[in-house]
Design brief:
heterodimer, A: Nucleotidyltransferase, domain 5, Actin, Chain A, domain 4, 3 domains, seven-stranded mixed β-sheet, 28% helix, B: alpha+beta, two-stranded antiparallel sheet, 41% helix
Chain lengths: 479, 188
């Protein structure tokens, strides 16, 4: 049976899951956790390192100045960011490729079939240029992306057995770098995204907040006035990692010790952390997160009673205070579905998608606005992405030097409902001659509408290309 | 100061073009607009023919109006006639942009019209032929079937028409308009 792979390419951590028959293999690193999405590039040699070893020593590496330490590369994909070393110039794609390699490496260690393909998750509003860059990065690592899938949709696919008969499901995905909330509608095996909300305060910010509070307590005890920011980077790294561990441990315990053998010049740090202490620090983050969830449900124009399911996933969703608050909240407790493996859910959903044929369908029509203001439908609702290239011919109706190509979107297939102007571009002409302007168009595998205009007029060739990404899609689950 | 919204927009200036030669692509031909483009179109589809003759058979009323009329007024230099759209209905109207010229700047043209029809029209309305022709042409006479009068007694009349009308209309068109108008009055 074909082995399926799913990758949750995250801002802070990247999780890979292998699915073989009904067995799920989480492709964690040596600690069993997802691979930190962090890459160090040696400025002299161009050698790249990835994952936990870089994460655990990141402040030290930054301070040394010998390496570029690249975090959150997902936010740089498709942009002009560059890192210049003595050997070569590195792009965000190169860094992303290294992270893909790091995930694929875990497959090799398990002596499983190599990861040559995978479904890869992306945020709902991930730009087309970033999608294309991510696809190239995976290709550089020897992985063909079988399909992109939006992160909340992947989470829903993961829990499809539970939510199959639901109509409205909210996905609350709180990872290391971001909180992403989506309200989805399930209808006729199709997943529609009704509303999304995001926040860039997540696990890393909580870890730093705890580390600062623990430092303050320890140094108050010592009578030392040095601030956390003035500590050696090695000390900061150690304390932050210990605090992250404590945060995770405290999801099942009421009290524990944070112990760093050598913190701040030969002295050990030993602080007893209680639930009350931790909750006091985490509470503002949790309040903001729940407020955002409320906003997302309201933006979806549904009532809290209508919400059939609330999938709480992502590493930070393990926070006990969050789970308790949601459990005790009448708006959400009946819909609440807590995950046992919240860091892996999205990747597992992607692996399921990699196994079963499915795809995105456009839910609105795209058409040409003609000179008489009529709408000529090019793409009908329900058409699948990855379709072949189609063609239509137009010609200029007036004697001017530029053809105005206008495209609009409409909810119905014939364009008779309210239209939204999608985009426009201009094709140079030599005046009226009745000659055809050939328009070739397709919905690309990166979920963009691409149009290429070509005209041959009076011996001159003109070619103009345009790409449009603000389209609405529904995911078709084909079991 | 409050921000002002733009009140201009780019309009599409293309239409679907089939694989047929341009003279067989009638849907496209109907959409060609502007005197320059229409002139080039006529050169392409009816080379060597008199443009006004070719225009009568190949162009829509609107195109004919544009073709005949997108040339400047000899008095003020403006283009005083043009298409006006009210909702979905489009008509050709006189509208001097300088407000100097009036549609009384007509062009006289001789027509052979049925004397019985002309007599009837002027008698029923109590108006001169020029006045009744103006009223008749303002009706939607093209929407009614043209009932040819087999027993015509033609006589030469001078009629004052707007330049577009003088360029485009034939005697049968005037008789058609007069017949529709007088029939409507008679019915009333």
């Amino acid at each position: 049976m074909r082995v399926s792979y799913g990758i949750d390419f995250g801002t802070t951590n990247s999780a890979g899951v292998m699915l073989q028959e009904d067995h799920v293999y989480e492709l964690g690193d040596a600690t069993g956790r997802p691979l930190p999405s962090i890459v160090a590039i040696d400025k002299a040699t161009g050698r790249m390192s990835v994952g936990r070893e870089v994460w655990d020593t990141k402040e030290e590496r930054i301070k040394s100045g010998r390496e570029f330490v690249v975090q959150s590369v997902k936010r740089h994909l498709g942009k002009d960011q560059r890192w210049h070393t003595n050997e070569r110039v590195f792009t965000p794609e190169d860094v992303a490729a290294k992270i893909f390699e790091g995930v694929a490496e875990q497959v090799k260690l398990r002596k499983a079939p190599p990861m040559t393909h995978a479904a890869v998750t992306i945020p709902v509003a991930f730009p087309a240029s970033a999608r294309a860059a991510l696809r190239r990065a995976a290709g550089s690592a020897g992985i063909t992306i079988s399909t992109f899938i939006h992160e909340p949709t992947a989470a829903l696919v993961r829990y499809l057995r539970k939510v199959r008969n639901h109509q409205y499901v909210a996905v609350f995905d709180w990872g290391g770098g971001t909180l992403d909330i989506s309200v989805l509608k399930l209808k006729d095996n199709r997943v529609f995204e009704l509303a999304t909300r995001g926040l860039s305060q997540a696990g890393d910010d909580i870890d730093n907040c705890i580390a600062r509070a623990v430092h303050t307590r320890e140094f108050k005890k010592r009578g030392d006035e040095r601030s956390y920011d003035n500590m050696a980077t090695r000390d900061q790294d150690q304390l932050r990692i210990k605090c992250e561990d404590a945060k995770c441990e405290m999801s099942t315990r009421d009290e524990m010790d944070i112990l760093v053998q050598d913190y701040g010049g030969g002295q050990p740090l030993d602080i007893a952390v209680t639930r009350q202490f931790l909750d006091g620090l985490v509470s503002p983050f949790v309040d903001r997160a729940i407020e955002l969830l409320v906003q997302a449900v309201l933006a979806a124009n549904i009532s809290f009673e209508a919400l059939d399911g609330l999938l709480v996933i992502g590493g930070s969703s393990k926070l006990r205070l969050l789970r308790e608050r949601l459990f005790n909240d009448d708006r959400f407790n009946s819909a609440l579905e807590n995950s046992d493996a919240p860091e892996w859910d999205v990747a597992l959903g992607a692996a399921v998608v990699d196994r079963m044929p499915s795809g995105y369908e456009i839910v609105e029509s795209v058409g040409l606005i003609l000179c008489d203001e009529t709408f000529h439908t090019l793409v009908h609702p329900g058409e699948r992405a990855y379709d072949r290239v189609k063609n239509v011919s137009v010609a200029l109706v007036e004697d001017t030097t530029q053809a105005n190509i206008l495209l609009a979107k409409c909810d119905d297939a014939m364009g008779s409902g309210p239209r939204t102007r999608a985009f426009q571009f201009h094709v140079p002409t030599s005046g009226f001659d009745g000659e055809r302007i050939e328009l070739a168009y397709a919905i690309s595998e990166d979920l963009t509408f691409r149009m290429n205009a070509r005209s041959q007029t009076r011996g001159r060739n003109y070619e103009v290309a345009h790409e449009y990404e603000d389209l609405r899609f529904a995911y078709h689950i084909n079991e | 100061m409050s921000e002002q919204a733009s009140n201009i927009d780019v309009r599409s200036n293309v239409y679907l073009r089939t694989d047929k030669p341009i003279n067989a692509d009638t849907d496209f031909m109907k959409r060609v607009t502007g005197r320059a483009a229409i002139g080039k179109l006529l050169e392409r589809v009816a080379p060597g023919l008199d443009p006004s003759e070719a225009g009568r058979s190949l162009l829509t009323v609107r195109q004919a109006a544009e073709w005949a009329w997108q040339k400047p007024c000899e008095l003020c230099g403006c283009i005083p006639e043009g298409p006006v759209r009210r909702g979905s209905v489009e008509t050709i109207e006189f509208r001097c942009p300088l407000g100097r010229c009036h549609p009384k700047n007509f062009v006289p043209r001789a027509f052979l019209l049925d004397v019985v029809l002309v007599d009837r029209a002027t008698r029923i309305t109590g108006k001169s032929l020029n006045e009744v022709v103006r009223l008749a042409l303002d009706t939607n006479w093209r929407d009614f079937p043209n009932k040819e009068n087999g027993k015509r007694s033609p006589r030469r009349y001078w009629v004052a028409l707007t330049p577009w009308e003088a360029y485009m209309l034939k005697a049968s068109d005037l008789e058609h308009a007069l017949a529709v108008y007088t029939r409507e009055l008679g019915d009333a």
